[in-house]
Amino acid sequence: MLQRAEPQDFDRVLSSMCTVPHPAAREAAERFLATNPGDPGTYETVSELEVEAVESLGEITGLDDPAGYVASGGTEANLQAIRIARNRADTDDPNVVAPVHAHFSFTKAADVLGVELRTAPAEDYRVNLEAMAELIDDDTVCVVGVAGSTEYGYVDPIPAIAELAHGADALCHVDAAWGGFYLPFTDHAWHFDHADVDTMTIDPHKVGQAAVPAGGLLARDETLLDELAVETPYLESTSQLTLTGTRSGAGVASAVAAMEALWPAGYREQYERSMDNARWLADQLRARGHDVVPPELPLVAADLSVPMTDELRDCGWRVSKTGAGEMRVVCMPHVTRSMLRSFVADLDWY
Ligand code: PLP
């Protein structure tokens, strides 16, 4: 069974937001496989590593003295951010306002937490602020901005979203689960230093090149995390604020190892390479007559008539579609120029 090949040898995977872990991350994951940062009294080393992980994530996102933890992924981090906002607010009928392109984890979060999710339309792939403002009312507990959307890789106007949130005494949450390790090398205003952001999702197991599972939840202030704390009478520690109990020490250790190895120079090089690849692919597709959404981060969406994507799948390519039916190629670290060249050659053949 272990010999069976997954497409996750990654040589034709253009659809995923996961990637090949950095060698140091892989090695650290193996070493800490049997540890549980959910029980810090017992597993002290990995708990110390988690503090380091949060410090590094704080540095990457412009947050001095960061609070947070390494979650199972972006879904958990987004859910926990909404939980913080709900628990802190004084309303029996809470709602969250998010762009229509917010990841479906917000739909799950709203369902699990009993919160209404209101979605604002987009214009040119970013949220329409006027429409967003109209959805906000006295029961709004959180306003969400996406920094690197799942379908198009676009960045919402985060400072304006933070203003809208605070005008309504709501929290501002930024979902940079995918974009967070590319954005430090761009001019976008997206992080704690650029705007009055309260909480943020940034996932080491995506562009951060850590092993799965390693998501990141950050909060401007430790007191925000207090909203999540439950008592833990059977553990050596007295309370827990994570959603899951037992957690992966492999994810935590590999996140630290990846960030030690790559922040900032390695991630910068990766951003530049991936962005060049995205622009190259966009040009190639345009030259073949396709409508291409200009890439803002390393993600290319193009109006290729599908069933094309099914035929590409048949020759091993893993590509996905946006909700509007465009082909979507995510230029993750494992996506090289030579991979894209053979992808384009296969496109020409069809
Ligand atoms: N947020 C964004 C912007 C994403 O792109 C994704 C996944 O692709 C998530 C959240 C959810 O992350 P995960 O699948 O790690 O739970």
TrEMBL record:
EC number: 4.1.1.11
Keyword Lyase listed: yes
Presence of keyword Secreted: no
Gene Ontology molecular function: aspartate 1-decarboxylase activity; pyridoxal phosphate binding
Pathway: Cofactor biosynthesis; coenzyme A biosynthesis
InterPro entries: GrpII_AminoAcid_Decarb (IPR050477), MfnA (IPR020931), PyrdxlP-dep_de-COase (IPR002129), PyrdxlP-dep_Trfase (IPR015424), PyrdxlP-dep_Trfase_major (IPR015421), PyrdxlP-dep_Trfase_small (IPR015422)
Protein name, as recorded: Probable L-aspartate decarboxylase
Gene: mfnA
